[in-house]
Amino acid sequence: MDRSVEKKEHGGFFVTDIRDLVARRKSEQRRIKILLDARRSEDQAKLKGGEDAVAWVKEEQCIGCDQCTIVCDDDAIELYDTPLASPILNIEVNRKAKILRDPCTGCQLCVLACPTDAILMIDR
Ligand code: SF4
Ligand code: SF4
Q1: How far is the CA of 7 from the centre of ligand 1 (A)?
Q2: Contact between 63 and 116 (Cβ < 8 Å)
Q3: What does the pLDDT read at residue 35?
Q4: How would you classify residue 99: left for phi > 0, otherwise alpha for psi between -120 and 50, otherwise beta?
Q5: How much is the mean pLDDT over the chain?
Q6: Which CATH class is domain 53-123?
Q7: pLDDT tens digit string along 53-105?
Q8: Exposure of 69 by Cβ count < 10 A (0-12 exposed, 13-18 middle, 19+ buried)?
Q9: Is 76's C-beta closer than 6 angstroms to any atom of ligand 1?
Q10: N or C: which end of the chain has fewer CB within 10 A?
Q11: Distance (Å, rounded) from C-alpha 124 to C-alpha 111?
Q12: What is the distance in A from the centroid of ligand 1 to the CA of 41?
């Protein structure tokens, strides 16, 4: 895969062109899907899935990394901002994933993509 990114000088800084970012995201989406497809049949057999199941996010385990939204073909996951649990930390953006029940098809891809095992498949 070609990971080269064109950077243009802007105000003395080199910034990544938005088209390159979009292309990188699509490329990353393809890469993740290929990896997942390889793991999928084996892991999928152990998971609940299909039309009687829906994904569910354990909020405390979600780190807002966006991997689940990349692999979801059905636009069934949204990220939302939430305050940090600890007032000691000063981080501008703290995001969590939320599953939209109606568009979720129970395909399980998000479960396989999540790096923190924050997503479960539950009965619909
Ligand atoms: S189970 Fe499939 S359709 Fe449902 S949220 Fe996960 S990736 Fe999207
Ligand atoms: S992949 Fe997992 S940790 Fe990342 S945003 Fe989705 S639910 Fe949260």
Answers
A1: 34
A2: yes
A3: 80
A4: beta
A5: 84
A6: alpha beta
A7: 999 999 999 999 999 999 999 999 999 998 877 777 777 778 999 999 999 99
A8: middle
A9: yes
A10: N
A11: 16
A12: 16
